[in-house]
């Protein structure tokens, strides 16, 4: 540890609790904004930090991380290169400016500063703005546990790459457990915790140093958690004057996550080294850096909120009742919007596009059938074609009860046919009813927008329809052979390898023994695999899939064997053992016609896919994904026509970015909304009639609107934060922040379902479809954990 430069020492910390929250934080703001160097420090993080340091040295002590300890973390940022970094406890923004700047230099995306005191948060926001970091730093006001749970529920953060803990000492452990339980801290995350030796945080050190067995034994013993034990009383009561008795998260964490940790010595900004050691630590230390060790992680199934924190409104009956009530409350607004939209469209009708009028004169209109219009993707394509082509657009979808397909009420559709739902394993009723529609309507072009369970069935319909309707029939749907090659996870991985494209190490396994052969050493002398894997069921099973996302091998061969054997892997229940790639996830949507990519878009994936933001088509990452799509499309050849979407995991950046395809979906993706009402896109679909080629790839024109679903955002960004506030868990700051985001989406983004000239599907979706679903769930007692507003899918719990 190098010597401390005394000329830089802060004023000493005053005894008692009056060394903060006594007005000095606002005084600091005045100091900064009346500083003679104000103009020269604008936009300069280092300049702003220097003036904060000057205040700390010449005026009053500030509880900042300071230059010396700060360097440990900035070095760590340069090493870890976090995409998302979170700090717990922002105070006046010193660490936030220092680390936010370092994250930006390391090409990171977001730095979240979680601060409970709204006055301090305002100081942070003001200084961050002065430092020119507002584009990367987000200040979140509220108690850390409530903010973490809320931001996770709203899909704002899905993973924390680096977390700096510097807030209320007893909350270090409880907040860490909460992040583990929510799957935000996983293998690959790094934690950096301040003040764990002085003033000391024994419960936190004990937790990050415990083995799986120790944690499990503690959980089973029913021993009461004592998060304040060993922490100085003055620190346990540090914020009592303003916040009274502290309520901490009671999350259970993820005991299977084991950390590797190291302590790093340094100095307080006052120059005080860490000497008083409440722990039996051999040396004075300050920051502990801890990273979960790979091969030990069990990623728990995601939950909307941790059980121990769950307020009443997440429970089945109140949840459904409240949503029905909310929908009733929204009725006057949505009805006003519907009426106003109809009137405006009546007065100013949507002009027919030039291509629509021109084509109308020359050839008789054809019949285009779109299946899957209850989902946004089908509806968007139907609207696009009705707007820009002269053809008759008809639609079909499974409709078990009235109003289960909001898209059928779209004015872009001339006729709607209800299809029979598959009867358990038997898909004959669906196939027959769709074939009947194709024949009866003498369909010229069928655009299939099947859901995940309909991919194989739609391919079967294609073969039968081609036989029945002859060569004049065309379809945007892959053949059965192609669907099998792409849809089944293991077959797709083999295809990727055969095409010499990069692929994660993957193995189809039909028995536990096969799985274990890849994971465990065969003899005592042999080393086991160094890679970590995920074991996914090869069929479609959302529940199983979520529950089985466990990183393997586990800590010991015995645990690994026990886990794998529980899954009952067999010939009839095969699994794919796939290498775990720790990277950001992206998804793509493409339209391929006769082996040629005609339409392409890529965007970052978010867990519920409720927000869509297109990547610039010119970016190296989008180009690389397009290149991959083209290779797969060309391999398919002349007979390869359909929608094609991929999920990729991505490591690195710029030209050196590495792509790992993890799944292929031979069907349309909701990202198709990003094309808006593009005429080029409609033209590309018409190539499905067998015309032209070599026209190039249609991409969204940039800048392009981002998309959201107002129903999802109203609940996630407004209703939940408000209810949490009423339950005494949230804060006004978090409600305000949710509102800000909501208003931003309302003004600058577009709703995926609403459009002025075709507003009825939007009204039906929120005023009829969803209330009917909630009512059904109440009456039938069907539990659900999540909803997807764009696909109308209910995820059963
Ligand atoms: C030591 S200061 C943080 C210093 C800051 N990291 C820096 O180095 O510039 C601790 C901060 O944590 C905040 N805090 C305490 N408990 C909190 C909680 N439960 N959630 C969010 N912030 C909290 C306090 O208001 C205080 O501003």
UniProtKB/TrEMBL annotation:
Organism name: Polyplosphaeria fusca
Pfam family, one: Methyltransf_3
Keyword annotations of the record: ATP-binding, Catecholamine metabolism, Membrane, Methyltransferase, Nucleotide-binding, S-adenosyl-L-methionine, Transferase, Transmembrane, Transmembrane helix
Superkingdom to which the source organism belongs: Eukaryota
Name of this protein: catechol O-methyltransferase
Domain (ATP-grasp) ranges: 493-690
EC number: 2.1.1.6
Family: Belongs to the class I-like SAM-binding methyltransferase superfamily. Cation-dependent O-methyltransferase family.
GO biological process: catecholamine metabolic process; methylation
PANTHER family given in the database record: CATECHOL O-METHYLTRANSFERASE 1-RELATED
GO MF terms, alphabetically ordered: ATP binding; metal ion binding; O-methyltransferase activity
Residues passing through the membrane, by range: 321-348
């Amino acid at each position: 540890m190098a010597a401390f430069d005394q000329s830089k020492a802060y004023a000493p910390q005053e005894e008692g609790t009056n060394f903060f929250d006594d007005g000095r934080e606002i005084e600091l703001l005045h100091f900064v904004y009346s500083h003679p160097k104000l103009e020269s420090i604008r936009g300069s993080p280092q300049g702003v930090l220097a003036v904060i340091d000057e205040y700390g040295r010449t005026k009053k002590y500030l509880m900042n991380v300071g230059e010396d300890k700060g360097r440990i973390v900035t070095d760590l940022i340069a090493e870890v290169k976090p995409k998302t970094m979170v700090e717990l406890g922002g105070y006046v923004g010193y660490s936030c400016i220092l680390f936010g700047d370092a994250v930006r230099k390391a090409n990171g995306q977001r730095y979240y500063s979680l601060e409970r005191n709204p006055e301090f948060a305002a100081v942070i926001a003001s200084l961050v703005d002065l430092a020119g970091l507002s584009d990367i730093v987000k200040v979140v006001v509220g108690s850390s546990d409530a903010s973490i749970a809320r931001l996770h529920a709203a899909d704002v953060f899905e993973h924390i790459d680096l977390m700096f803990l510097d807030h209320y000492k007893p909350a270090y452990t409880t907040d860490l457990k909460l992040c583990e339980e929510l799957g935000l801290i996983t293998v690959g995350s790094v934690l950096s915790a301040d003040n764990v030796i002085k003033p000391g945080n024994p419960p936190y050190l004990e937790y990050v140093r415990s083995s799986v067995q120790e944690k499990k034994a503690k959980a089973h013993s029913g021993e009461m958690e004592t998060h304040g034990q060993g922490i100085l009383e003055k620190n346990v009561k540090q914020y009592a004057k303003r916040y009274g008795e502290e309520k901490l998260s009671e999350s259970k964490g993820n005991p299977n996550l084991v950390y590797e940790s190291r302590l790093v010595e340094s100095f307080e900004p006052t120059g005080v080294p860490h000497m008083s050691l409440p722990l039996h630590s051999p040396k004075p230390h300050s920051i502990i850096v801890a990273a979960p060790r790979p091969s030990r992680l069990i990623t728990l199934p995601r939950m909307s909120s941790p059980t121990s924190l769950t307020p009443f409104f997440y429970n089945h009956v109140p949840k459904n009742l409240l949503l029905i009530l909310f929908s009733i409350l929204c009725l006057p607004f949505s009805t006003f919007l519907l009426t106003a939209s109809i009137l405006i469209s009546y007065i100013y009708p949507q002009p027919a596009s030039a291509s629509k009028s021109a084509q109308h004169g020359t050839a008789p209109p054809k019949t285009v059938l779109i299946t899957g219009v209850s989902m946004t993707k089908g509806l968007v394509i139907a609207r696009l074609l009705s707007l820009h082509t002269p053809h008759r657009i008809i639609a079909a979808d499974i409709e078990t009860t009235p109003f289960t397909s909001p898209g059928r009420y779209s004015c872009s559709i001339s006729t709607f046919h209800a299809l029979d739902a598959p009867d358990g394993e038997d898909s004959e009723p669906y196939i027959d009813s769709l074939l009947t529609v194709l024949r009866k309507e003498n369909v010229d072009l069928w655009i299939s927008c099947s859901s995940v369970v309909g991919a194989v069935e739609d391919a079967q319909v294609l073969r039968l329809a081609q036989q029945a309707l002859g060569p004049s029939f065309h379809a945007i749907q892959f053949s059965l052979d192609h669907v099998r090659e792409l849809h089944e996870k293991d077959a797709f991985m083999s295809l990727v390898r055969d095409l010499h494209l990069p692929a994660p190490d993957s193995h189809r396994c039909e028995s536990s023994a096969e799985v274990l052969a890849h994971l465990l050493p065969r003899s005592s002398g042999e080393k086991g695999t160094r890679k970590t894997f995920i074991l996914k069921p090869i069929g479609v099973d959302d529940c199983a899939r979520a529950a089985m996302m466990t990183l393997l091998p586990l800590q010991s061969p015995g645990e690994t064997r026990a886990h794998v054997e529980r899954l009952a892997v067999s010939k009839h229940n095969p699994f794919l053992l796939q290498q775990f790639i720790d990277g950001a996830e992206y998804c793509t949507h493409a339209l391929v016609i006769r082996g040629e990519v005609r339409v392409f878009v890529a965007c970052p994936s978010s867990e519920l896919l409720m927000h869509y933001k297109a990547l610039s088509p010119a970016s190296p990452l989008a180009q690389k994904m397009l290149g991959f799509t083209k290779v797969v499309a060309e391999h398919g050849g002349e007979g390869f026509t359909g929608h094609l979407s991929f999920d990729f995991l991505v490591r690195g950046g710029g030209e050196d970015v590495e792509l790992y395809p993890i799944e292929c979906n031979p069907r349309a993706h909701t990202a198709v909304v990003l094309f808006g009402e593009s005429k080029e896109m409609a033209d590309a679909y018409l190539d499905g009639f067998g015309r032209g080629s070599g026209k190039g790839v249609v991409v969204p024109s940039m800048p392009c609107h981002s998309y959201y679903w107002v129903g999802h955002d109203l609940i996630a960004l407004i209703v939940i934060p408000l209810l949490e506030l009423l339950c005494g868990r949230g804060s006004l700051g978090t409600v305000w922040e949710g509102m800000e985001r909501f208003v931003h989406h309302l003004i600058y983004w577009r709703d995926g379902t609403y459009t002025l000239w075709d507003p009825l599907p939007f009204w039906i979706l929120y005023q009829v479809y969803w209330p009917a679903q909630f009512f059904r769930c109440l009456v039938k007692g069907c539990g659900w954990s999540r909803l997807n507003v764009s696909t109308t899918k209910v995820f059963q719990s």
